[in-house]
Amino acid sequence: MQHLRNKEAKQYSLVILVIAVVMTIISFLLNIWAGLMVMITVLLLCFVFQVFTLRRYKNIKNLSEYLRRVSSGDYSMDIRDNTEGELSILKNEIYKMTLMLIEYNELLQYDKVLLSNQMAEISHQLKTPLTSMMMMVDLLQDEKLPADKRYEFTNLVNSQLERIDWLVASLLKMSKLDAGVVKMKKDVISATRLIESVLQPFLIPMEIKHITYAREVNNLEIVCDEMWTREALINILKNCIEHTPEGGHISLSVKDNALYSEIIISDNGTGIRKKDLPHIFTRFYRGQNASSDSVGIGLAMSYSIIKKQQGDIQVKSEFGKGSSFVIRLYKSVI
Q: Which CATH class is domain 187-330?
């Protein structure tokens, strides 16, 4: 019997055997018929004990085999048991843990693919300005290069360096959001102050493109993380300005109700194609009408920031007629 190799089973069997022998001897000393009855009873009890022990040993052996297969990556075996008993409860709990491991493993595989794709995209985005800079540096080494060309190439190198700096900074921010190390605050801030700080960096670019703007704030207050929410709104506004032609118009408004504060940023620019709308917040996604300098990070970052605050962000757009971004920051978790 293989189960007797188990130390615990062997000890129990030995103890029962000793007790059975002692009881049988005592019974025979008292009465031969009593001794026979006791002996038969003891033999039956020993048989029943061995049967139940063997059954339990097989169940434990099956559990061990199941865990061995799970550890090797085979999740096909199902050990769920609907009968009552401690062993059945243990089987069901182990099966639940297996399902969690399957889900965790699938998530890890997804993260690996996502990381690989992101690294490829980052490498591509960095390679383009670096290649351009290397070419211009080679040209700048020419002593016969005219002064005006030298000035032009130097400015181009500087603009590419600024692009790399922005890209690296944006990727670092995205990494912080993905890693979950960013703890969003719940501060009560002035909506006017928030919108003014978002508009400030774009006043000159909008003036150059002759883009007018209007804001409707109504002295409201918003509950949010001011720094990160500003970052999200800046990225959205930047996208609107890039896709609004000269002489266009942009509007920013803040509304409030019992459930949430709503920020709406709208433009009358080129709009977004219908097939691009479902992917507009996907990282590194570039629509058909995206600018040549677009990386596809800004809107994805805005989406992550708003979602981290249990908020919601939607875009409504009609190609050729403009876009409208609607951000809702809820006052309590829903």
A: alpha beta
